[in-house]
């Protein structure tokens, strides 16, 4: 019944901090898999969101994709592509590729929607003024619209990042590495210290990412409103920041 | 690639698991909504209570679902509660915030008008504030439902008695049998997408005055 004691004992045991199944290795794997998925999602969703927000074209398609991505369960997605990727690559196709695929689908909607909504929310007078000063469309986007909506865009990235970090653990059910390994192995071996140690590590990583991105977001918000960052914290001014949409 | 014979042999099992999936999700959403409405009413009246509620709700979300299900086994044993408690907790995160946001969205003028018409606090809540909060509560229900459908698949890790359609995904992966994985995965996706559509439709019917439509883009 002494779960806290077992967890602390497991986390402070030097033996758990070394070797191929040690905390540093699993931590690195977790970060690496999450980063790869997030970077792929950003590479797809950010340009698409900026395009849709700037041109106001294809909104219906973007909303449809976002709603689909939000509705589809990650585990079902892993199951859907697993037999296909496994046929091509029996090693990585069983866990790594399906998990990354599911995480990319999970991460796209918040980035896509926030980029679109952020750009669209930029004051139309400002955009027209920029055009009047002779800026090209690319310059309007890069120098005016993106800086002014950076806080909203980063809000989407933050939301995606936290969801991906918490959900990558699912891959461990299919023999993937990462911190989910400790949770799955802890369950299998009836080792509560390992199970809850894994939970603590995932939660710490998720909260660190959330905190770091929230800080960036606050800076971006302060920069775009011209107010000191403290003002934003107290809610004096600036656009309301989008809340994180919880997911599984 | 697809073993059609397996599918036709397992129609009863597929139907049973679909029913189990919907049952596990429906119980969690009903309980989650009841708790969120109660907490939301309290938090909307006493603003100081909102930050701690919201913080706890946010913390729950950083716990991987896989771990939360497993964590309850030593505490409550292996029964319906083991699956339902985490499912309810995750719906609370979504529903509570949306209920409070819904009550917040009621214009102060409307509340004052209700007071001036000598509504009691309870009747104002039921007849004025609640109907006006419906759009945001429904939006929350939609997200919570879809997310719960996904989470139910993970209850399969608790054993064969749970999991709904997730059972087929895990068993299929264990046996390296694509047909079974596809059956579980595709039916889960259809369930999630179907319920998502249903809620969009319901939302439109319940709040015909919301002209914007509920399907528009909103920041995540």
Short description:
Helices cover 75% and strands 0% of the residues of chain A.
Plain-language structure description:
The complex is a heterodimer of chains A (248) and B (220). In chain A, 75% of the residues lie in helices and 0% in strands. With 248 residues, chain A is an all-alpha fold. Chain A has a single domain (3-231), classed as Orthogonal Bundle (MetI-like fold), CATH 1.10.3720.10. Chain A is elongated. Residues 228-248 of chain A have low confidence and may be disordered. Residues 213-217 of chain B have low confidence and may be disordered. Chain B has helices at residues 4-9, 11-45, 50-61, 65-76, 80-104, 108-116, 121-154, 166-175, 178-206. The radius of gyration of chain B is 20 Å and the shape is elongated. The two termini of chain B are 38 Å apart. In chain B, helix 3 crosses helix 5 (80-104) and helix 4 (65-76) packs across helix 5 (80-104). Chain B has a single domain (11-204), classed as Orthogonal Bundle (MetI-like fold), CATH 1.10.3720.10. Classes of the chains: A mainly alpha (248), B mainly alpha (220).
Descriptors for this entry?
heterodimer, A: 248 residues, MetI-like fold, elongated, B: mainly alpha, 9 helices, 78% helix
Described by the principal axes of the CA atoms, the overall outline of chain A is elongated
Approximate shape of chain B: elongated
Q: Can you tell me the CATH topology of chain B?
A: MetI-like fold
Mind telling me the C-alpha Rg of chain A?
21 Å
């Amino acid at each position: 019944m002494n779960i806290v004691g077992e967890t602390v004992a497991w986390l402070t045991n030097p033996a758990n901090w070394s070797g191929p199944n040690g905390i540093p290795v699993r931590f690195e794997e977790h970060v690496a898999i999450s980063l790869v998925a997030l970077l792929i999602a950003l590479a797809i969703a950010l340009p698409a969101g900026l395009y849709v927000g700037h041109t106001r074209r294809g909104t219906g398609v973007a909303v449809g994709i976002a709603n689909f991505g939000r509705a589809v369960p990650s585990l079902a997605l892993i199951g859907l592509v697993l037999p296909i990727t496994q046929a091509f690559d029996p090693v990585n196709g069983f866990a790594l590729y399906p998990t990354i695929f599911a995480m990319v689908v999970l991460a796209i909607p918040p980035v896509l929607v926030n980029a679109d909504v952020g750009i669209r929310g930029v004051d139309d007078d400002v955009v027209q003024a920029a055009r009047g000063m002779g800026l090209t469309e690319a310059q309007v986007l890069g120098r005016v619209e993106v800086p002014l909506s950076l806080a909203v865009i980063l809000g989407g990235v933050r939301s995606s990042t936290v969801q991906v970090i918490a959900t990558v653990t699912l891959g461990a059910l299919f023999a993937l590495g990462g911190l989910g390994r400790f949770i799955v192995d802890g369950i299998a071996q009836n080792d509560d210290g390992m199970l809850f140690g894994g939970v603590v590590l995932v939660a710490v990583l998720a909260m660190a990412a959330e905190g770091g991105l929230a800080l960036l977001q606050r800076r971006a918000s302060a920069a775009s409103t011209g107010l000191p960052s403290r003002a934003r914290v107290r809610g004096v001014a600036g656009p309301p920041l989008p809340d994180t949409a919880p997911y599984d | 690639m697809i073993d059609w014979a397996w599918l036709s042999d397992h129609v009863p099992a597929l139907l049973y698991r679909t029913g189990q999936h919907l049952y596990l999700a429906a119980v969690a959403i009903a309980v989650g909504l009841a708790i969120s409405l109660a907490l939301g009413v309290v938090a909307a009246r006493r603003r100081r209570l909102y930050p701690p509620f919201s913080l706890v709700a946010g913390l729950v979300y950083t716990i991987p679902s896989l771990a939360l299900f497993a964590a309850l086994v030593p505490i409550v044993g292996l029964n319906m509660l083991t699956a339902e408690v985490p499912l309810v907790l995750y719906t609370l995160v979504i529903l509570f915030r949306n209920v409070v946001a819904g009550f917040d969205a009621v214009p102060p003028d409307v509340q004052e008008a209700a007071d001036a018409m000598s509504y009691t606090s309870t009747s104002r809540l039921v007849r004025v504030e609640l109907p006006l909060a419906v759009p945001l509560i429904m939006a929350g229900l939609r997200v919570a439902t879809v997310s719960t459908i996904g989470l139910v698949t993970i209850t399969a890790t608790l054993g064969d008695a749970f999991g709904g359609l997730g059972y087929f995904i895990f068993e299929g992966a264990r046996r390296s049998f694509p047909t079974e994985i596809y059956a579980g995965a595709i039916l889960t996706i259809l369930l999630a997408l179907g319920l998502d559509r249903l809620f969009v439709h319901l939302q439109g019917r319940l709040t015909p005055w919301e002209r914007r439509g509920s399907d528009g883009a909103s920041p995540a």
